[in-house]
From TrEMBL:
InterPro entries: LexA/Signal_pep-like_sf (IPR036286). This is Signal peptidase I. It comes from the Archaea.
Length: 119
């Protein structure tokens, strides 16, 4: 299993170099269960629309959430697991996540989530 994940990481790195896409690391439960609490993603600078997953800057942090609505330069985002929204400016968007791989198996995520007080 470890060899497979290392191989995937190497492949992603090479793919990133060849396709000029960025690789991002996603950490946290805000996009759970869509994206696990530890995941890598490929990002592109392309047009975003409602429903897309984007990476953006918010209060000096890098965040990955889903686009809920877009009105001009204002974008409303929300983590799939969150109860609250973030309103950001289009200039704070880093990229659109076009592919991701959760690095923790779903059954391990469930155990971890329950240990942290989730239901």
């Amino acid at each position: 299993m470890k060899l497979m994940k290392v191989s995937i990481l190497v492949l992603l790195f090479l793919l990133s170099l060849l396709s000029m896409q960025d690789i991002i690391l996603m950490v946290g439960f805000s996009m759970y269960p869509t994206v696990g609490p530890l995941a890598i993603g490929l990002c592109r600078d392309e047009t975003i629309k409602e429903g897309d997953i984007i990476a953006f800057r918010y209060m000096n942090h890098s965040i990955t959430h889903r686009v809920i609505s877009i009105q001009g330069n204002t974008i409303v985002t929300k983590g799939d697991h969150n109860d609250f929204y973030e309103v950001i400016d289009r200039k704070d968007v880093k990229c659109k996540v076009v592919w991701y791989l959760s690095l923790i198996p779903p059954e391990s995520v469930e155990k971890l989530y329950k240990k942290m007080g989730g239901k």
